[in-house]
Amino acid sequence: MSNQDIVALMDDMGKRARAAAMQLARASSAEKQAALMAMAATIRARESEILVENQKDLAAADEHGLSGAMRDRLALDHDRVEAIAAGLETVAAFKDPVGDLMEEWDRPNGLKISRVRVPLGVIGVIYESRPNVTADAGALCLKAGNAAILRGGSESVFSARAIHACLVEGLTAAGLPGDAIQLVPTRDRAAVGAMLQDMAEYIDILIPRGGKGLNARVMAEARVPVIGHLEGICHVYVDKSADLEKAVAIAVNAKMRRTGICGTAETLLVDRAAAATHLRPILDALAGAGCALRGDADVCAADDRVTLAVEEDWSTEYLDAILSVALVDGVDGAVEHIGKYSSGHTEAIIAEDVAVVERFTRLVDSAILMVNASTQYADGGEFGMGAEIGIATGKLHARGPVGAEQLTSYKYIVHGSGQTRP
Amino acid sequence: MSNQDIVALMDDMGKRARAAAMQLARASSAEKQAALMAMAATIRARESEILVENQKDLAAADEHGLSGAMRDRLALDHDRVEAIAAGLETVAAFKDPVGDLMEEWDRPNGLKISRVRVPLGVIGVIYESRPNVTADAGALCLKAGNAAILRGGSESVFSARAIHACLVEGLTAAGLPGDAIQLVPTRDRAAVGAMLQDMAEYIDILIPRGGKGLNARVMAEARVPVIGHLEGICHVYVDKSADLEKAVAIAVNAKMRRTGICGTAETLLVDRAAAATHLRPILDALAGAGCALRGDADVCAADDRVTLAVEEDWSTEYLDAILSVALVDGVDGAVEHIGKYSSGHTEAIIAEDVAVVERFTRLVDSAILMVNASTQYADGGEFGMGAEIGIATGKLHARGPVGAEQLTSYKYIVHGSGQTRP
Questions:
Q1: Percentage above 70 pLDDT, chain B
Q2: Which of A341, A389, B129, B266 is most buried by a 10 A CB count?
């Protein structure tokens, strides 16, 4: 396609999304729920077609020599298709945030003010290879009454199209506009440029979902507001007041349960005052679980399984069975280290001293602070939000897990009885 | 100053703001309150110096032939200086939003999740000639624990500097960093460009406060998130179920109480079914109050005081004693007209029929919907927010009156007892 054709295509998608958003804002909870249930049923009914399309993506992946991890992210099978359908049902069952009364109060002049949730409008989602994001993102946008413009990775184009067709069928089965969830039909990169730069009139907010490179590009280039998801450089701090058993279990779980997710711990900070008692048992457990250890000079001196960390280690998201370990001077040392190196995602403190816990949770400015719990709980589902589109690391509009509620705005309704302002 | 000097200057201001924001986030409510009270006292003590500096701005205004309205906005006298001090005291007395527990819930696995308010960080405010904005904006940012970088209009540079000096004195008197509220010291327009384009590392959010031109420029050019304040094209809809007395009083108040504010009504919509009963008395009252009337063909035919409106009238913010008037087909006609022409600020409905009111408040997507009350109540003070920095017309992060609470973000604190994720 020529650049001009893409501009015209995206402009048309934008207009259709706006029109669909107007209709969606008026859709009832029951209509949205029916659409989501119909989508799930269609996904299940078309499993074999989806798998055939997925094979085309996999064949192309093999041709382009995609790495094992990337190929795995792309691959669908019966269980993964079922998980997509089940995810749609979870979102269907969840509470509709639109129309929620957030707060209300009375004024001395008799005005009654209330604040109620409304949809945001049109949400653009730019993502990479996982085919399930097509369904997850579309469903969450719909739940919150928003129209969605989805741009998936070019590696998963056949799978995404097959899944998207099921979503549209679910929408129309429930009497909602098929344009409520649109998938950019071209692989051309100029379409992403259009979403970032030229569609401010149509797109209210952009959500990048993918690796560091994608997020950085969207946040740097977008002329539309972005809910960004940076990497997770998550810390676990073990205070001298920590219960050793909890510290060992949480450190191992935070790093090793799944090493490839953004809520995995990348750095362990141990209170210098607990080095003699806590460090060794924690490192024993980590090493025993197969974790490679990189530490500062003090940690290396204390334990010869640890190799010397370089400055870059403290700001590296390994997403692998590797952990950097430093000794710090109590909670203030931990706060300082985290302030310097954290990406603002999730940090944990293991401590029994309530004053230390209070200081940590007050002074550390990350989206999620875990007290005596694993960083791997940083997840919308674990928070009870039903589903999430990611963990926002910015501080604007939404922070932490982004579920349907975070994809809404609000308006004020003021009830009077003829009041005029003096 | 050379462009290079300005870049260096703004870079330095950004660094200092970041450092101040770190300290402010940890400041107690009492410290912030003490600073605001000290600022008010200093403003009062230095009234004569402030007025001398204001005279310099006024002399320059006369030299440049500034219009009467602009000159009036710029001018200070005893009462206006007193109002600035009183405004600081109002913000001081108001509840500190930082640390507020927004919600909390328990999970089946025993995790206790809470969401608490935290400061946003560094807020850039770009405003025009009113000198009081220096104090209002600085105070609100401080109240919410944010550092502020203020860029006032070049017409009010002497007044703004004099007021800013009082703010810094108040900060340091309370032991808070003077850099918490910085005023861009140069009139050079390149400083605004730097705030819009080059300071994403330092400025978390930009708030333009001023006319349509300023807002449009900031929203178009900023590479930092913006809380925008577009014009207010506010509507009053009079339904056939309206109480005539309320309709007359509210229409006159909404238009004529103050014609120059963003919450003033610009268009009156009258239910065609009420044209015979309601239109004439309302237009009589408006004309009697000195309002010029422009109407559609039907309104012109019904009342010869009305001149024919052109298409542009329906999207014009007159900010003057002029009102456009149209007949519409009931509440759905009103919703359609408002959807087409409104700027999303504030609309009012005058109606006694609860089903009609419900339909209007559900279907109209503006920041504030008034039911049987004047649009001129669209104001943070009238909402009980203490003070405001403007009325946001966007849907992201903050919508409607922007007070201290709207200048915050939040974080999650999760209390566990050793939980690890299965």
A1: 100
A2: B266
Is the Cβ pair B416, A371 closer than 8 Å? yes
Q: What integer best gives the mean pLDDT of chain B? A: 94
Please tell me the distance from the alpha carbon of residue A8 to that of residue A316, in angstroms, as a whole number.
41
> Is B205's Cβ below 8 Å from some Cβ in A?
yes
Q: How many Cβ atoms from other residues are within 10 Å of residue A305's Cβ? A: 13
Give the C-alpha distances (Å, rounded to integers) separating B215 from B125, B205, B209.
11, 14, 7
- B257 at A interface, C-beta within 8 A: yes
| A400 vs B: CB within 8 A | yes
What gap in Å lies between CA B389 and CA A203, rounded to an integer?
26
Are both B52 and B182 inside the same structural domain? yes
pLDDT tens, position by position, B123-182:
999 998 788 899 999 999 999 999 999 999 889 999 999 999 999 999 999 999 999 999
Q: Is A194 within the bounds of a domain?
A: yes
* Domain with B107 in it: 3-227+402-413
Q: Smallest Cβ distance to A373: which of B253, B367, B416?
A: B416
Signed CA dihedral, B374, B376, B378, B379: sign only: negative
Q: Examine residue B25 and state whether it is found in any structural domain, yes or no.
A: yes
Across the interface, of B363, B377, B400, the residue whose CB is closest to A421 is: B377
Do A253 and A166 reside in the same domain of the chain? no
Q: pLDDT tens, position by position, for chain A (422 residues)?
A: 788 899 899 999 999 999 999 999 889 999 999 999 999 999 999 999 999 999 999 999 999 988 877 888 899 999 999 999 999 999 999 999 999 999 999 999 999 999 999 999 999 999 987 888 999 999 999 999 999 999 998 899 999 999 999 999 999 999 999 999 999 998 888 899 999 988 988 999 999 988 788 888 888 888 888 898 778 999 999 999 999 999 999 999 999 999 988 899 999 999 999 999 999 999 999 999 999 999 999 999 999 999 999 999 999 999 899 999 999 999 999 999 999 999 999 999 999 999 999 999 999 999 999 999 999 999 998 999 878 888 999 899 999 999 999 999 999 999 999 999 99
- Within 8 A of A400 by CB-CB distance, chain B residues are 411-412
**Structural domains counted in chain B:** 2
Contact with chain A for residue B95, Cβ under 8 A = no
Q: Is B383 an 8 Å CB contact of chain A? A: yes
* Cα–Cα distance, B142 to A415 (Å, whole number): 32
The pTM for the full model equals: 0.93
Is the domain of B151 the same as that of B18?
Answer: yes
CB contact under 8 Å between B371 and A204, yes or no, is no
| A100 contacts: CB under 8 Å, gap ≥ 6 | A116, A117, A405
Residue A376 pLDDT: 97
Q: Token pair of A290, please?
A: 């197969």
What pLDDT score was predicted for residue B112? 98
Please, what's the b/e burial string for A204-218 (b: 16 or more CB within 10 A of its CB; e: otherwise)? bbbbbbbeeebbeeb
Domain assignment present for A419 = no
Co-location of B27 and B137 in the same domain = yes
Same domain, A119 and A198: yes
Residues A352 and A409 in one domain: no
Distance from CA of B194 to the nearest CA of A (A): 16
Same-domain status, B179 and B129: yes
H-type alpha helices, B144-211: 157-173, 190-197
**Are B268 and B176 in a shared domain?**
no
Residues of chain B positioned with their CB less than 8 A from the CB of A253: 420-421
Strands B234-238 and B205-209, bridge-based pairing: unpaired
Residue B394 inside a domain? The answer is: no
The answer to whether residue A114 neighbours chain B at the CB level (below 8 Å) is no
Q: What CATH number is attached to the domain comprising A243?
A: 3.40.309.10
- CATH number, residue B99: 3.40.605.10
The one-letter amino acid code at A380 reads G
Question: A370 touching B, CB under 8 A?
Answer: yes
Which chain B residues contact residue A97 at CB under 8 A?
none
